[in-house]
Structure formats: C-alpha cells, structure tokens
Task: structure prediction
Amino acid sequence: MITHLLSAADLDRDTATLLLDTARQLGAALSGREVKKLPTLRGRTVVNLFYEDSTRTRVSFEAAAKRLSADVVNFSAKGSSVSKGESLKDTAWTLQAMGADAVVIRHPASGAAHRLAQWVDGHVLNAGDGTHEHPTQALLDAYTMRERMGRLEGLRVAIVGDVLHSRVARSNVLLLNTLGAEVTLVAPPTLLPVGVESWPAGVEYDFDAVLPKTDVVMMLRVQRERMTDSFFPSVREYSRRYGLDVRRAGLLPDDALVMHPGPMVRGMEIAPEVADSPRSAIVEQVANGVLVRMAALYLLLSGEKGAGE
Amino acid sequence: MADRVRNTPEPSRELLSEADIGRVVDRIAHQILEKTRGAREVTLLGIPTRGVPLSVRLAERIRSFEGVDVPHGALDVTLYRDDLRLRGARPLGPTSVPSGGIDGRRVILVDDVLYSGRTVRAALNALYDVGRPLQVQLAVLVDRGHRELPIRADYVGKNIPTSHSEKVSVLLREVDDRDAVLLAGGEPQKPSTGGDK
Result:
C-alpha cells in the first residue's frame, strides 16, 4: 500500500481496486447496525487542515475518521495562526509536534499536499490542492459508477465543463483511465488546460454529439472564483452550449448516469429537473464519499508504519 | 485471515480427509440441533474466509436433518483485530448479517481453526456492535490449542494437539480446490504472535 494519497496517478490498478473493494466491505459491515462505528483507528489522530472553504469534503473526512474511532482535530485557516501569517511549513511542524498520524489537507496552491508530505511523518491525504488534484473525489466517483453500472472497464464517461480549473477532472481522468474506462472531455476550448492532448482522454467540443455515446456524464461547476479572465461571453451562452438541460438529458441512453461533484450551480451547468431525476447519482456520491475516505484512512493508517510508535 | 488459496509447499500430513470433514460437519450439525433443541432462534455467522462456507454447510445439514431453515451470514472481524498496527493493512472480508438481525438470536460463530482465540475475541466485539444476541456459541472445525485468551468452543470438529512451529491448513472446496485438513512443519521457527492460524 502507498504511504500518502496525493495524486490519483499514484494509484495503480490493484491499489485502486483494493480501495474500492474495501469501501464496499465497509459499507456492508456498517449497514443495518446498531453502532455505526468501528474501533479500528482508536487512539490515532487525524488532522483536517483546510486552507480553503469546503463543507462536503471536510465533513466527509471528519465522518470517515470518526466512524473508524480516530480522534479528529479540525484546523481551518480562518481564525488560526495562518491568518496571522504563519507559513505552511511552520504549521506542518506544529502538527508534527502534536503527533498527527494523518493530515488531510485542502489548499489553494497546487502541489501543497506534496510539500507537506515531505515535512511531516504522518500520512498525508490530498483533499484538493489548487487546480491540481482531488484523488478521494475521483475514488468516490469511480465507486459510485461501479456500484450503479456494475463495471468500470469500457465505461464511456464524459466530463463536461470547466476542465481548466478542475482538480476533480484531472484526478478522474487519471483514475478512470487506470481502471479501464474511456473518458471524453467536453468543454469550450478556453476552458481546457494547455497540454490536454497528452491526457489519457478524448476531447470534444460538441456536447450534443457526445451524449448518445455516453454511459456516465459528469458535470463540473464553473469555478468563477478561480477565473481571472473571461473564458466565455456570458453565463447564458455557456449554459446554452454546455449545460445539461432536460432536452440534452433526453439524448443520453436510458440507463446512463448523471453525476456532479458539487457544489452545483442549478440552472447554470445542470438543470434542477436533471439533478433531481432518478438517473442522477449526486446524493449517492456524497454518501459514498464517507466509505471511500474510510477505506483510504484504514489502508494508509493500519500499515506497518504505525508499528513501534 | 489467510490467503485466498492455500498453497502448501512443505511436506504435510493429512489429518482429515474429505470424507472425515463431511462426517465432522454432520456431527456438529447434530450437536447444534441437540444443544439448541432443534436449532430454535439459531443464526449462524461464519468468520471469513473459511468460516463462511462452513456455516453454509452447517445450515444445509440442519435443513436436511430436521427441515429447519437457519439464517446464516458472514461477519468480518478484520477491523476489530488487535494486531492491525503490527502487521500491514489487510483486505477486508465480506460481512452480511441475515435480514432478521441478531437481536434475541442464539448466534453461533463458525470458524475453521481455533488457535490463540484472538479472532474470536474480535468477533465478539464485532457482534456486540451489530446487536444484542440472546446467546453466543462457537463452532470450529479444528481446535489446535495454545489459547491466549479465556475462550473455548461449544462445538469442536477435531482436537489436534500441535506445537507452535506446526501449521494447520484447512482446505475447503468452496475456496480451495478440495476438502482436507493438513498439518505441516514441526521444525523450529519463531513462535506465532497469535491471530494467525
């Protein structure tokens, strides 16, 4: 097993499959029980280090750690020494002194998780670094697809929208490719990153043409907070060309799945009717997130590294 | 929990043949029926890997002897083990508790080998997080001794006195290619820290 979970590229097929299988067994072990808690990580400390706003991911990691009986310390940049000017390295040393067994980090700078992994002894889990990666999101998406569609091998997945600013897209492309799915990116040329042709994914600009050949469509939020330029003429035009409305959802095969990593902007990239339809897996994605993060914490923390501490 | 398929490269002695295992399972099924007065309120929970097929076999035997349908399932204990920090992360086994749950049931835990007793300790803790059974009993195919905890089995297929350096392998058709109980080793090696079979 790996020491840190920094990038979806670190996961080979066996490790990724082990993570997904473990998540599934955890779900089975916890279902219908009186006590929704496992003693596995009793006495271990997991620090949630969040430099960026997040509800879903932080709560999900917190719930995952608590269900495994770990102690959780939440550390958010607002109201901490970070707002007084403390550097990431000094914060890392503080965490080190506190004896954190695992650090979950979300940071606006790409590569922050990698840097942190060099400074602390504990295991580092990347919960989103800038526009770079968000591996646990990719794992929960892959898990959701596998549960709903029964397979990942040969599954045709379209990732649509703001690929340029999306760490979710990058992690998903890497992981889904490792697991044998065929990924197509659909976006206006201005919202595709430089070098996208080297990614293991196809690129299309015409959303309507892609939909009938798609098993899973994953909509991305347009990250206006990261936009310093104008990437498209107007919200209305973007929504017209790249939004998943009711008409477009009708072009999908009958058993196709609609996903969104959240937070959704209803009416922009996805119509409310589509987001709430039975083919949408958006609520399941959130529930599956806890299982996948439990699996990651279990596999990272119960390894040999803990011995002799 | 052992590997999915057991390979025994070292020379080993067969302690129980396929026919022996069949007879032993028959006997345990009869003992369960006798001790629980017709398997009333009984739920069988197998401990993965090989406790699960054993619990299925026991349920089949009980049905064919007395026509009683006994709910059976699987209870993975990996997350409750006391040696997780000493050894690498282990893959988890399946858990499936029968739909009726275990509240007020006479739960019989089923495993292949009883050794240190640590697996059973973990199973008891796992069980009490699932619900509140009326009673808990333990059925094992082989008891090889060397308990490290105050635990004993209610139903034992065969008592096999062993030394720590020996290795008992249970092979079952559902997981391995055949039914057999093998004893290997005997030459000095470091004593087991428990948990393993």
